[in-house]
Amino acid sequence: MDTIESISAALASPGALSVPSRRLWIETVGCQMNVLDSELVVAALRRQGWQLTTSPAEADAVFYNTCSVRQHAEDKIWSALGRIRQEKQDRPGLIVGVLGCMAQKDQELIRTRAPWVDLVVGPGQLHRVPGIVEEILAGGPPRIEVSLDRTAGSRDAVTRSFESYDPDRDPAMRSTPFQAFVRTQTGCDKFCAFCVVPRVRGPEQARPPAAILAEATKLVADGCREITLIGQTVNSYKWRDGGRTTRLADLLHDLDAIDGLERIKFVTNYPRDMTPELIGAVRDLPKVCQYLHVPAQHGSDAVLLRMKRGYTIGEYLEMHARVSEELPRAAVTSDFIVGFCGETDAEFQTSVDLIDRLQFKNSFIFKYSPRPGTKAFERQPDDVPEGVKKERHQILLEAQTRASLASNLPLIGTRQTVLVEGLSARDEKRAVDPGPDGSAQLTGRTSCDRIVVFDAPLRLVGRLVEVVIDAAGAWSLSATVADGLADAVPLSMLDAGGAGGCGDQGPVHQIAPRPER
Question: pTM for the complete prediction?
Answer without folding.
Answer: 0.88
